[in-house]
Amino acid sequence: MTVSPGSVVLVDMDGVLADWFGGMADAYQEAGGDIADFDLNRWDLGTTGAVRQLQRSVQATPGFYAGLAPIDGAIEGLYLLRDLGATVKLCSTPDATNPTCASDKVDWVANHVGTAWVKDLILTHDKTLVRGAVLIDDKPEVTGAVVPEWEHIIFDQPYNRHVTGKRILTGWGALDTLKENLA
Ligand SMILES: [Mg+2]
Prior knowledge:
CATH superfamily of the largest domain: HAD superfamily/HAD-like
Bound molecules: magnesium ion
Oligomer: single chain
Radius of gyration: 16 Å
Strand content: 5-15%
Structural class: alpha/beta
Shape: globular
Number of strands: 6
């Protein structure tokens, strides 16, 4: 799908804008875990049993999501998309196990992207119900109640490299590889 000026570009947060896996690795080690427990080729980290319990408790810690670092080039990439004429919306699913995740995400956007962008944040547990031309998301498959209007562009991460048949954004520095179709 070609995106014309004014087209809505939806951008996921965790694993696309915010370095969820880096933050998890740091917090998990601080909690006494060994990141060798993680299978980085799996979306769910492949954890089970006590390891999963510790990982989930780290993930549910209040403030975890507010403390994530931006992924390299992500903020500049958002500004570039906007400069290209796209209507950029951040589209993210709040972690239901973390009591501050939704407000953490609001804070993160205000702190790292800009306070004006808070109004461009869409928090939802079903991205298929959000309209847009494209969704840039690291999740291998984004499913929900309806067939989505948007084209899913994969944001490259180790755990989504088995996906075929979708365009891939290999990193924010590679945005120009999509540019002609994004504006
Ligand atoms: Mg994500």
